[in-house]
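Predict the 3D structure for this chain.
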Amino acid sequence: MFELKNIIKEYNNGEISFRALNNVSLKIDAGEFVAIMGPSGSGKSTLLHILGFLDKPDSGQYILDGQNTSHFTDTQYAQLRKDYIGFVFQQFHLLPRITSIQNIHLPLIYSGKKQLKRRAYELLEQVGLKGKETNNPNELSGGERQRVAIARSLVNDPLVIMADEPTGNLDSKSEKDILKILQDLNDQGKTIIVVTHEEDIGKQAKRIIRLKDGEIVSDEVQVKTKIAKKGHLSESKGKKPTGSTIQFMDYIKQSFQMIFANKVRSFLSMLGIVIGVCTVVAMLALGAGAKVSISSSLSRMGTNLLMVVPNRGQGTVPVKFTIKDVDALKGLPMIKRVAPQVSGGVTLIAGNKNLSSYIQGSTIESEQMRNRTPEYGRYFNQEEIQNREKVAVIGKTVATELFGDNDPLNQILKINKINFRIIGVLPALGGGTGLRDQDNVVYLPLSTAMFRVLGKQYYDQLDVEVKDIKQVSDAQTAVTQLITKMHNLTPEQKDSIRIMNMAELQEALMSTVKSLTFLLGFIASLSLLVGGIGIMNIMLVSVTERTREIGLRKAIGARKIDILMQFITEAVIMTFTGGMLGILLGVAIATILSKVAAWTIVITPSAIIISTSFSITIGLIFGIWPAKKASNLNPIEALRYE
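Done. Predicted structure below.
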């Protein structure tokens, strides 16, 4: 069954080299009960670890049913530990934050036999702990914990039980109970190998191998063992270990167990991700809201609108727009409507209240061109323009500031000491351009504004509506040429007029908002990066804290890839959960801002997808290093870690 030939194992501690085993050769057959004895430092535990594939010899041969295993890979060693060997340790090595039954069930996960969970309950009853299924290890006595460890070693039905000082931390009664269990297992055909320094325990074995200074000094058979038939391990001869049958859902379940077992640490790990994702979602929501708000405001003005204004800059000549310009522009085939405008600042008075505002005088075409249809009341008509009637359409701010909750329709509004009758109230436009409130405005008939209020002879601006938005660029060129010709402007004086294209203005503003949103999102994503670093640090601390757990998992059959996936899955779950919480918090904050500050917010699917993907990526990137470090731990060194 087991055969060692000239095994040498050395340990280096800095400049000091220590040979734990020196040319050890022995053979152990199936069905034996062997006690390996000797004083401390004699190499007995090292011998057991090599026999149990927890450690590798530096030289010599380890023959298993005729096959040399000395040069097997870590994965092959893990396969042998998983399928054929059950370990019982002096320190029990139970995972402290899971129940007894979960500890026993653990090897079944790595062997792909989790459906045999019923066996874990049967073994717990077999070792005399029925009713202790849900107890955590800290709720059990030393003897009970060792019984759980024995049940765990048996759950995969191994052919060999290897016990390292299994009674070293027990009282005399518990010691007798454990020895009785081991003897019963040997009677059932299990091969038992026990490391001990207690003579009373050695006497219970059928064979005693004594070591001193790394060498076998005696090999005494106390009771001759009937050798079991060959073949129970020979099935593994020449067989390459298969891939682990552990499924991804098992990694997830194990990860959740560990996360909930360390709630405070896990929450602190997720906190950075929560804040990062929350910031990203809120910033992207505000940016998208700004786009919608600007688009809505500009669409009210019309995207196929050209605004022609005189340019008062240096080197220009004064250009005065008249009705001739309006008529000429209306004659262009691609022009739908033309509306002249005048504007100016005024003081409004209603009752005992006053308000600094501005007025705009325009024609009836402006109602459709500028989307100025009143929320209630009406817009002025052509007759009122011709007769210079003193009627006004007011914005929401004017209505609220001067009339409060009272209905302003047909009320008197004094503009520059002239009484006007209010005939309509516009819907709230919101926001504004520059420092101007779009709702703090009064619209008057063009003639009334020019001659009764502002005393102007010429138009301040010409709004030109193009029939088809695709013709806006051509129309802009045609308007420029027409105005230049009508006002006899030379090529050097062409800058005396300025034409603003609303489509271009909207595109420019959208581009600016997009860049600003990207910048804010990038800055916010830096907090995600910080959160990822926090995850990595916590995971590195977790690797240190859980070193013995990692050693145990490897001892019961976990491969490097299993440990790697375990820790990466934990990191991804924490970042994903943090991401989900961050999304909810970000949406909540953005909603609160929209209510309190009256900002427009838009939660887009892309913002959710970006935040979620980024958080998962952070978990993968920053979880790999700690996971790699954990997977590379030597199982026996990990078990000895203090």
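The two ends are 34 Å apart (CA to CA).
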